[in-house]
Amino acid sequence: MSENLDKSHRNKAGESKPSDSEQGLGGALERSDEALQKEVKSDAPSPQRVGRPHSGPPRLVTVEELLETAKGVTNMALAHEIVVNGDFRINTVELAEGSLEKRVKEIVHKAFWDCLSVQLSEDPPTYDHAIKLVGEIKETLLSFLLPGHTRLRNQITEVLDLELIKQEAENGALDISKLAEFIIGMMGTLCAPARDEEVKKLKDIKEIVPLFRAIFSVLDLMKVDMANFAITSIRPHLMQQSVEYERKKFQEVLEKQPNSLDFVTQWLEEASNDLLTQKYKHALPAGGGAAGSGDAPVLTPVSVQNYAYLKLLKWDHFRRPFPETLLMDQSRFQELQLQLEQLVVLGAVLLVTFSTAAPGISGHADFAEKLKMTVKILLMDMHLPSFHLEDALTSIGEKVCLEVRSCLSLCGPSPFSTNEETVLKGQVQALASPDDPIRRIVGTFGGQSLGGCLSSFLLM
């Protein structure tokens, strides 16, 4: 999208674009505020926050402070999403069919355009509404221009001079069709190549009211294009400043609400306490003291941080509040958690299969790849509420035994016996329990590797 817009500004407008587009980003932030809040609410569940540990006495907060903080957090979430999600785009909001909001919008729009139609059909025509629409179109076209587009700015200002248009209307000399023709031509100059077809269709509309309605519809699409162009342009700058920017914003929130990061504190304290217990001391690095001092495990900030991220991979998102500093990535952690659970079951099935059927199949790489893809397909819907792991593992056990029997019959030293099939099916079925030893082993090693990668990535 950014390449198209850049191309349109160079080839159509004939003038170079500046390296920065902060004004465009400001518009993007404002226009996407509501859409982002809806997206965050839909992607990240909002658990009931009870039992919050208070780090300090509560203080009264004014409405102005609340609104300012909410706006700051929303802008921070938008900036974070732009940096983390390379495919982030602002899309037009489509109202649900048959919803009250959509019906009200249609009624209001119909009343407005009917009023315009009545005014233009009078004798002589009344152009009050039409002139206001031309003023809105003028401001929208000017908002698309970059600072270097002086020639285009002068053309728009000169042709769409509202005072002159009012005088022409009063004297009966206004040619509204000529104004519409200029507007369509300017839209064709400023739009992205992807919008050329929509702009071209405007030339086929002869009635004034439907033409104005279609013009505003295409202008709305162009606004979205420009916002996405601004986002793409500002992304490299945000990536350089995102860490300091988010740290500053969280500090501002913490100063206004001292207990606003209590869940982060609780999350890190739990990780630290777990590591200090004998059960989790294996996750600590060995001490690097002098000779003879021993290699006793050492509790370090890095080890606490790594283990804290491990805990997020097994987080109960619907019963426990998520750490505040990671709320913007909660949906990503949920997706990682689902992928990890799928990989753990997949790895456990493969481990059980090769342990039971070896050495007859251990040397066949093609068989291992085929078996992996088969099991992965059967676990594809693992994230759905209707998925039942026990039933899936029953099917997987049958399929695995079939594949092993087929492989051994072709190239194995001995066929797969009935007793071996029964044992393999039972071991696969036992993986349905989270406490199964093989599943726990695979989950421990896989989770530790992924947890370390997560902490390194998120703190780069």
From TrEMBL:
<dbReference type="Pfam" id="PF05794">
    <property type="entry name" value="Tcp11"/>
</dbReference>
<feature type="compositionally biased region" description="Basic and acidic residues">
    <location>
        <begin position="30"/>
        <end position="42"/>
    </location>
</feature>
<feature type="compositionally biased region" description="Basic and acidic residues">
    <location>
        <begin position="1"/>
        <end position="20"/>
    </location>
</feature>
<dbReference type="InterPro" id="IPR008862">
    <property type="entry name" value="Tcp11"/>
</dbReference>
<protein>
    <submittedName>
        <fullName>T-complex protein 11-like protein 1 isoform X1</fullName>
    </submittedName>
</protein>
<comment type="similarity">
    <text>Belongs to the TCP11 family.</text>
</comment>
<feature type="region of interest" description="Disordered">
    <location>
        <begin position="1"/>
        <end position="59"/>
    </location>
</feature>
